[in-house]
Amino acid sequence: MRQISVFDAHCDTVSRLLETGESLFQNGGMVELEKTKVHFRDYCQFFALFANSARPDHPTYEAMRDCFWRHMEAQSAHIVQCRTAQEALEANRQGRAAAFLTVEGAELLNCDTARLECAARDGVTAINLTWNHANAISGSCNEERERGLSDLGRRFVARMEDLDILVDVSHLSDAGIWDVLEQARRPIIASHSNARAVCDVTRNLTDEQITAIINNQGLIGLNFYRDFIGGTLDFDAVRRHLDHILDLGGSGSLALGGDWDGCETIDALPGITDLTALYEYLLKCGYAERLVCDIFYNNLMRVVSKR
Questions:
Q1: To pair with 170 at 20 to 30 A between CA atoms, which of 40, 104, 129, 216?
Q2: What are the pLDDT digits (tens) for 128-160?
Q3: How far, in Å, CA of 156 to CA of 167, rounded?
Q4: 197 with 282: CB under 8 angstroms?
């Protein structure tokens, strides 16, 4: 099977490694550098810092950031933290994976605009405004779903854009998504969300939201969590979401957002290197290889380059 280029917009691998103490190179999870080096010609990954804020003992932003940095140092021959598309392309040229740091849930930064300065210095590339819980910035897909951005939330989004941090609307309330789109001056992302018309859950995007993100020149990362795919748990199920977003004009705004190490993925994709089989499946179904390459790598690289 051919080597492919992959740029994926979401994994929770840092949280898993912090808990298990395993190595990023070789572990029992879904993302292992030992395997990605074999299967992927070029590899870029958004590594999310995630902690369930409902748990009083959840790890801090600093603890997870430091865990990420430790793994970058330990595996520096294989992977490097990148802040720009140019750095990522150079890392791939050198045969190393490119790691981008992201934050899932602004509550990890206490929803504090002042802490965005520190996050930017740390190289944070994107921030989900909420996880599943509502916070001071907005309601979420699960809590206070009718509440959009607060005044603080609007200031937070504006400051993120000033600091070249991508605004990520996955997990956000519908009202919050529309508020972000109304004020956004730059492309936004939904790093790991699917089409609600195909699988009717609040974590997926409506057709109107998908169209607005496309018009914003933003990006939607396909999520392989079985509960957000719906129906059968094979590549045909993924294809239904892909086709629906393509039918809405999303060929330049569709990417991968696997949610690796953060959920139970579909049977056909137990780990990130199984994307090679999805790639071959799409080619056999008649998709142009250029389109598949765009979805697997180029589209997210384009959005990162516009930060």
A1: 40
A2: 999 999 999 999 999 999 999 999 999 999 999
A3: 10
A4: no
